[in-house]
Amino acid sequence: MHRITVFKVFVSDQDQARRFYVERLGFEVAEDERLGDYRWLLVRAPGDAGCAINLELAKTPEERALVGKQGAGKPLFGVETDDCRRDFAALRSRGVKFDGDPAVMPYGTGATLEDLYGNKIYLNEEPK
C-alpha cells in the first residue's frame, strides 16, 4: 500500500453537498460523472491530487442512517492548513459551524468544524 486516494462520505443530496464542500469549505471538484443512474462525485482540497472525498448518495436504510454520523461524533478526517486562525475566520464568515475557537495543542493549532450534515472535520496547523 502506498497512500489513501479516495474515501466515502454518505450524503442525503449530492448537489447540496457539492455546494457546501466547494463554496463553504473551499474544496474543488475533482470528478463529477454520471455512470448510468450512478453519480461519481469527488471533491478534494485545492492542490491535493493525492486524496479525494467521494460524496456518495445514501440510498439504503443503512447508508441513510450513517449520514452525519460516520465519525460517531469524532472528526471523520482532518485537513491541514498553514494558518488555522486565518482559515477559521474565513470559514466561519462563510457560515461554517465550529465547535469552538482554535486551540493550541502539542500537535498543533486546531479547531473542529462540521459539514452540512454534522460530520466533524478537524482543521489543523502543524506546530512551528
CATH topology: 2,3-Dihydroxybiphenyl 1,2-Dioxygenase, domain 1
CATH class: Alpha Beta
Shape: globular
Major pleated sheet: 5 strands, mixed
β-sheet strand percentage: 35-45%
Total of helices: 3
**Count of folded domains:** 1
SSE series: EHEEEHEHEEEE
Distance between the termini: 30 Å
Low-confidence stretches: none
Class from secondary-structure proportions:
alpha+beta
Helix proportion range: 10-25%
Integer average pLDDT: 96
Any idea what the CATH superfamily is called?
A: 2,3-Dihydroxybiphenyl 1,2-Dioxygenase, domain 1
CATH architecture descriptor:
Roll
Could you give the count of β-strands? 9
Radius of gyration: 15 Å
Description of the molecule:
The chain is an alpha+beta fold. The protein has a single domain, classed as Roll (2,3-Dihydroxybiphenyl 1,2-Dioxygenase, domain 1). The chain is 21% helix and 41% strand. The protein is built from 3 helices and 9 strands, in the order βαβββαβαββββ. The strands form 2 sheets. Strands 5, 6, 7, 8 and 9 form a 5-stranded mixed beta sheet that branches. A 4-stranded mixed beta sheet has the order 1-4-3-2. The chain is globular.
